[in-house]
Amino acid sequence: MLNGERKIARPFRWAMVGGGRTGQVGYKHRLGALRDNTAFQLVAGAFDIDAARGKDFGENIGVSPERCYSDYKTLFAEEAKRPDGIEVVSIATPNGTHYEICKAALHAGLHVICEKPLFFTTAQVQEIKSLAKEKGKIIGVTYGFSGSQILLQARHMIANGDLGDIRIVNLRYSHGFSAAESAEKYSDAAKWRVDPKIAGPSFIIGDISTHTYYISELLLPHMKIEKLLCDRQSFIKSRSPLEDNAHMLMHYDNGAVGTAWFSAVDTGYMGSQTVRIVGSKASIEFHDYNPNELLYQVQGQPYQTLHRGMDYLDASALEDERLGALHTEGLSESWANIYLKFAIAMDAKNRGDEDFLKNFIYPGIDAGLEGVRWIENCVRSADQGAVWVDFK
Ligand code: NAD
């Protein structure tokens, strides 16, 4: 159980690039990082592409005026001169900026926490992975939904054989916020998401499917996709060549099959993500609008609902418990769990404890790499006319 007491010697001095007043995701980073006062302290930032607005915002949330910088290059250079300079930076800017900022941060000697999708290509991720290794730094990727403890219960039950042989994987993350073209007219965040120069090779695949794909990897670490077919299209034609809707079929190396649906034009739907894993003995189902529960369905028996925080769960699913059973946890706690894990991983890295890191589960550079690999394979299949491709 977590109660905010320190897990590492002292909090990391932390900065943000992006995530300012106009950013959609910035507050989630701060909710996550600052939930445990003992893990991170926000001491600096270049919060906005608009320097004046970024400085005003930084001061407004309590950062010293002289440490609210006009851009990330100045942030890294000036902080490097201070004895109490930053040790880690979070990147919460549009996709097309991640690679350059991440590279600059590593060269400045910082650990990095970066938004998904990490970069545009797996080649870029491999390059940054090597650089991070050379510099002895951690890269965390904010698959922010994946910190719900009940997912570790699901992972445990699958590993324990409670479901039998895994046969079917069913992933879905859909919403209707871009059902109309006007979404782009009223929101800068919606506009850049359909511009390949900023969003990368995909819209909805990179934007939301990477979250659900990572959850499937977390639950099924023993299974790898061998072949994949992706069909993507844009119902709003101006978004082409990027897609606002995509379906995938997957073949896994253990004989299991999968289907996935990701959409920004699922008009009226507010259910967010669902992950259903079907085995030969039982199935489980996770809905991220209620991360306090896991459905467990054994053939021939009444449905069971496993509740977060209860003693009957595996120890791995109780370690990150914060509020106790009965009291609802949600996305904020999930982000806090992820951020605490980043802090623990960075601390272990600084101490050279590679043995610990080998077995420590958190969304790091390899999770970011697999997310970009997933996007690349989906796009390659779709752009050849929705054909089966080897997953590579
Ligand atoms: P957004 O357009 O709402 O905000 C981007 C912010 O970055 C803006 O405030 C902008 O001023 C700032 N910015 C842009 N370039 C900058 C630069 N060079 N230096 C400093 N600030 C800069 O975008 P968003 O929806 O917050 O998405 C940002 C990133 O987060 C994207 O990569 C997106 O995929 C990801 N995201 C992740 C989640 C999640 O759950 N993990 C949720 C939403 C978005």
Automatic annotation (TrEMBL):
PANTHER family: CONSERVED EXPRESSED OXIDOREDUCTASE (EUROFUNG), OXIDOREDUCTASE. One of its GO terms (molecular function) is nucleotide binding. It comes from Pelosinus fermentans B4. Residues 155-390 form the Gfo/Idh/MocA-like oxidoreductase C-terminal domain. Signal peptide: none annotated. Belongs to the Gfo/Idh/MocA family. Residues 12-143 form the Gfo/Idh/MocA-like oxidoreductase N-terminal domain. This is Oxidoreductase domain protein. It holds the Pfam family GFO_IDH_MocA_C. It comes from the Bacteria.
